[in-house]
Each structure stands twice: as C-alpha cells, then as structure tokens.
Amino acid sequence: MDHFLYRDGALCAEDVAVAEIAAAVDTPFYLYSTATLLRHYRLFDEALAGMPHLVCYAMKANSNQAILRTLAEAGAGMDVVSGGEYARAKAAGVPGERIVFSGVGKTKAEIRAVLEGGIRQFNVESEPEMQAISEVASSMGVIAPVTIRVNPDVDAKTHAKIATGKSENKFGIPIARARQVYAEAAALPGLKVVGIDVHIGSQLTQLEPFEAAYKKVADLTQALRADGHEITRLDLGGGLGIPYARSNEAPPLPTDYGALIKRTVGHLGCEVEIEPGRLIAGNAGILVSRVIYVKSGEGRDFLILDAAMNDLIRPAMYDAHHDIVPVIEPAAAVEHQPYDVVGPVCESGDTFAKARQMPPVAAGDLLAFRSAGAYGAVMASEYNTRPMIPEVLVHGDQFAVIRARPTFDEIINRDTIPAWL
User: Fold this and answer.
1) What single string gives the DSSP state of each residue in 248-282?
2) Catalytic member of 12, 56, 270, 346
3) DSSP bridge partners of 196
4) 331-350 burial, b for 16+ CB within 10 Å, e for fewer?
5) pTM for the whole structure
6) In the chain, which residues have pLDDT < 50?
7) Could you give the domains of the chain?
8) Annotated binding-site members for substrate
9) Radius of gyration of the chain from Cα atoms?
10) Would residue 270 show up in a list of annotated catalytic residues for this protein?
11) Rounded CA gap, 274 and 51, in Å?
12) Measured between alpha carbons, how far is 415 from 146 in angstroms, rounded to an integer?
C-alpha cells in the first residue's frame, strides 16, 4: 500500500496534488510520502514484536537526510555500507549504537572514523577486513563489536546483479569455514564477536530462500556456542521485495517474514536485526516527468520525456519494470495503445519501457513512475550535464524540497581549470 492515489481525477501524494508540486518545482523530480515510509517501517517493527530486535533501514536504498531523520525519529536503526553513509546517518541524528556497518571494502580510514563516532557493530566480510578492524581498534585502545557475515550458498531466486548469498558472490565467508574464522576472530585483539550476519540478496519475492538461509544460521549459532562463542545477535539482512508491477502477484508481507524469523531463529534467544531498504522506501516514492514530444516512428510511437536514464537507471541497468501512470486520471473506458517510453539522453539504453500499453498521451502531460523511492535518486548521475533532479517530501497537506536542483553554473564550477590552460 502507498499514499499516491487519484482524487477527483488528479493523482495526489497524501493530501497534495502532484500537479501542484510540479508547478512549484518543475519536472522531473522525485516525490516521497512520509506516511508510506512510516507505515512500511512500522510493519517490520510490529512483525518482530515479542522478541528483542532492531529494524535497521538499509540506507543505500534512499539516503536523503529528510528520509533518514523521518525513520530515525520513529526508532529505526541504520545499515550503512560506506564512511559517507555513516556520516549521513550521524548527521541525521542516528546514534552510533543504532548503526551497523556492512560492505566488503571497508578502509582503515572508514573503520577509524566509525570507531571514533560510535558503532553498534561491524558486519565483517572477510578475514583481511577482520584483521584490519583489529589493528585499528587496538591502535585506538578500543574494542570493536563484530559479527561475521556468512555466505550460506542459497539461491535467492532474484536478479543476478542483486543476488548476494551464493558461493560465487563476493560477499561474506563461506559458511563451511565459519567456525574456523570465528576462532581466528576470538584470538584477535581489539575485537568482540557479538553475533552472526547473513544477507542473501535484494528483491526476493519468495520466503523459501530466507528460510533455507536462516535454518543454516540457526545451526551455526548452536555450533559456535558449543565452541565457546557468545552469540547474542543475529543480523538477518534485508531483501524482501516489492510489487513493481501492480498486475503481478504481491511478494510476501512483512508479517509473514516476521513469522518466518520467529519460527527459524526465535528459539535461540538472540536479538534480531533486519535491514530492509527497498520495501520501506520503494513504494514510498514516485518519479514525476513531463512529456516533451510524442514521436511517430516506424511501427511504433515514442513518448520522449524530460526524465532520463541518468535520473532513473534501473530500467537500463536491470531491465526493471516501473508502472507509469498519467497524473491526470484517464477515463475508465479509454482505449490504451502501445508506446515506447524514452528519455532525451543520447543512448539507446535510455528507454524506460517498450510497447507499454497506456492511455493516449500528449506533449506537456505529466506522468508518474511508481515504486521509484528506492535505488532511484541514490543511483542518479549528471550524465550529459543533466542536473540531479529535486527530491520532494510530502507530509499530509505540506510538501518541501529536500534536495534542490543545481544550476548549470553550480555544476560547471565544480571543475577546475589547470594553470597551463
């Protein structure tokens, strides 16, 4: 469910008409709903009620400060994957004890900064990283809390580019070697092992891969405890998918996911951490764009928009589907026709949809890309010297620009001309 609905023939974000925002900030822009963000966060929090837990929002999905503060004030922790994301989380007011640091390439400079600022735990991805954390923590005279990410060799049945739990993926320690690696961690100075971490991928639409992975984690927990390790936390990752196409079968609900967690690891007495990102932010955002031209081609019509692949790269990168709807609601009986929906960037890959069945569209019409709140703005670029587009947050009947569109001068002036030119 989201809070982008037609009212009296006009698409609204909560209590504000999308066309009103477009008139104020110009297109294209991202638009987020506070009510949807909070609803989705609370669904996860409530799904784990009755067991000690922390919902850590995977902020790589959308790291705007306003989004982070909205979730942090509701009680969310943060899952970060870089020093920059850690700095963003802290700037948004998230205390260090609610931040976990994931990612395969943590540098010593990042490790030091995080230890100075406070951290709930490092999710360790490799033995060399574990040694680096030990060295930095020891040099600072502090103890770094760590979990070790195990790779359970489970097929998440998702897109190959966002699968992370198979043996050929770059993430984590093979689960077969976990007991050996935990023994090495226990022997290193400056580290305190607090738990186990696992994350098998993103946009999962079935619960079976989670169940397979979590059962392996449960068995590993008991084996590690038998080896003398104090395992008090289980970081179970994120990855629950969203329905990008309204016509598709909906993925499992957070309540079903929570029940699975309780069934597979609830008997272990551990605090559970989960790291949802896409399901919290994805349906909480839309991309609003205007049609520049309707172009007739050889056997097809093109809708040329003012949004492009640099604004929303998911279709070009993953062949991802986003429902595209008119901001002005079409009549129920209107006949649909196929359009190729494209942007103005000089790449054939700048295509959002092919032969998409839509109601008749004219130049100047506003369109909304649904389910664009996750991995949209954060993956955007200024390719073709196209300014990063604004982000807008709605709260009831209010809206605010939470990231402004830069001017061409601001973009160009970031360059430095060397003295010899």
Assistant:
1) SPPPPPHHHHHHHHHHHHGGG-PEEEE---HHHHG
2) 346
3) 148, 234
4) eeeeeeeebbbbbbbeeeeb
5) 0.93
6) 158-159, 161-167
7) 4-31+283-412 (2.40.37.10), 34-281 (3.20.20.10)
8) 278, 314, 318, 347, 375
9) 23
10) no
11) 13
12) 40
